[in-house]
Design brief:
The protein is an alpha+beta fold. The protein has six helices and 29 strands. Strands 7, 9, 24, 25, 26, 27 and 28 form a seven-stranded antiparallel beta sheet that branches. Strands 10-19-22-21-20-23 form a six-stranded antiparallel β-barrel. Helix 3 packs antiparallel against helix 4.
Length: about 450
């Protein structure tokens, strides 16, 4: 009987049993510990190229160096207040429920502060100021237009028919003084009235010693009536009538004098033209004082009152301003523009304010005390507004705020800040850029 195969099978079985026993016996009872390598050095999370073999601060931004391979996490931050997510205007300093809506208040946390060394603060021109109530005046700026003062407009007409022989004021826009000759008229009726006056004086002189009672008094009355007709009907002045009495010869022409000082805004007088009493020959406008018609929105109408002062700035000369005062408020709102017409008056000694010129009207409005900060202190991204609060030791906390009106280079703060806190008033934009770059690096 051949025993070789059986021996081979026994040898193979013994080998397998020995191998399995060895694997089972040497199994570890606990899981092996993961080996970690010590960090090789330290780097700046903001400027990764800054590397050191020892802990310390970044030579560029001053941030603390972190170990290589370390994971940095942004701190959660402190709770500022609790807000109703459905009604953001409701806020509380404690957690709870909004009694009006029944919504649970959610915490609003502050963002991680930014560390800026003193040297870098000087380099970026960083300045700080204190949050405090602002007592001042706001400026309401509205459009306006220059108009002629209607109380200073003079019309020039004749009181009789005639023909123009000579025109002295011969173009529109000319400035004429009171008493300056405008034109010369010839009128047959004027000549006849002068002759009537001379005859009345002659009759008075000849009958001065008449024995008939009342004749002298009647002649004196006729002379006075003829004189008054020349003064008031024909417009002759007293000097011209005195000259008529001395010469005894009637004047064929009459010179029309300017009744007031002003610019000629309308002219309808030409040589050899026939004129009638109803014709307007000239229109004179005194522009030494003008009107300003301002358009004030109906929402701001309650802030305008009679006698209120204002400043007028011409559109062609920014920076030059004229003092004005409100003299009339039109009692009607424009149905299309929804504005109120306000009339102001201003002195115009050098005639710089010309009719129909567009101007800016600035009304100073007294502002109530309210918390505000300079415009440069607010970083406005459109969706949110941020102000940086100084914490001390070079730390600045980005604080979200709710802003209101803007006036006089300042911004009203509705919430987010407290009176007395120190904030960044200059350089906030650069500080915000630094904060965002560090957040991106983390």
């Amino acid at each position: 009987m051949n025993k070789t195969p059986a021996i081979l099978l026994l040898i193979a079985a013994a080998f397998l049993l020995g191998f399995g026993y060895d694997r089972w016996y040497h199994l570890p009872t606990t899981a092996p510990k993961a080996t970690t390598q010590n960090p090789q050095g330290y780097h700046c999370p903001m400027h990764p190229h800054i590397h050191s073999d020892k802990p310390g601060a970044c030579i560029i931004c001053g941030m603390a160096l972190v170990p290589d391979g370390a994971k940095t996490t942004e701190p959660e931050g402190a709770i500022l207040y609790y807000q109703d997510p459905q009604a953001p205007q409701y806020r509380s300093d404690k957690p709870g429920i909004n009694p009006e809506t029944g919504n649970t208040l959610v915490p609003v946390r502050a963002e991680a502060p930014v560390m800026v060394p003193a040297e870098k603060q000087q380099w970026i021109g960083l300045k700080t100021g204190t949050v405090e109530p602002y007592h001042g005046t706001e400026t309401m700026r509205v459009p306006g237009k220059i108009a002629i003062d209607e109380t200073r407009v003079t019309k020039v007409q004749t009181r009789f028919d005639g023909w123009i022989e000579k025109v002295n004021a011969d173009f529109t826009g000319r400035l004429v003084k009171k008493g300056e000759p405008l034109l010369t008229l010839y009128s047959p009726e004027l000549t006849a009235s002068q002759q009537e006056y001379l005859l009345a004086r002659k009759a008075k002189d000849s009958m001065e010693h008449s024995p008939v009672p009342g004749v002298s008094l009647a002649n004196s009355g006729m002379v006075e009536a003829a004189r008054q007709r020349l003064l008031h009907h024909w417009g002759m002045d007293a000097a011209a009538i005195d000259e008529l009495e001395r010469s005894g010869q009637p004047r064929k022409t009459l010179t029309i004098l300017a009744p007031a000082t002003g610019f000629i805004t309308m002219r309808n007088a030409y040589a050899n033209q026939m004129v009638k009493p109803e014709m307007e020959l000239y229109t004179l406008a005194d522009l030494s004082r003008v009107w300003i018609l301002a358009d004030v929105f109906e929402s701001d109408a309650a802030q305008i009152r009679l006698g209120q002062s204002a400043l007028i700035e011409p559109s062609y000369s920014p920076g030059r301003k004229f003092a004005a005062r409100v003299t009339n408020i039109i009692p009607q709102i424009d149905a299309e523009t929804r504005t109120l017409k306000v009339r102001l008056e201003a002195d115009n000694p050098d005639f710089a304010l010309r009719p129909d010129l567009f101007v800016n009207v600035e009304f100073p409005i007294a502002a109530s005390a309210r918390m505000s900060v300079p415009e440069d202190a607010v970083v406005d991204t459109g969706k949110q507004q941020t102000v940086y609060v100084k914490l001390g030791e070079g730390k600045f906390e980005p604080r979200r705020v709710e802003v209101g009106e803007r006036f006089g280079g300042r911004v009203e703060i509705l919430s987010g800040l407290k009176t007395g806190e120190r904030i960044v008033t200059s350089g906030a934009f650069l500080l915000d850029s630094e904060s965002r770059m560090r957040s991106a690096a983390k």
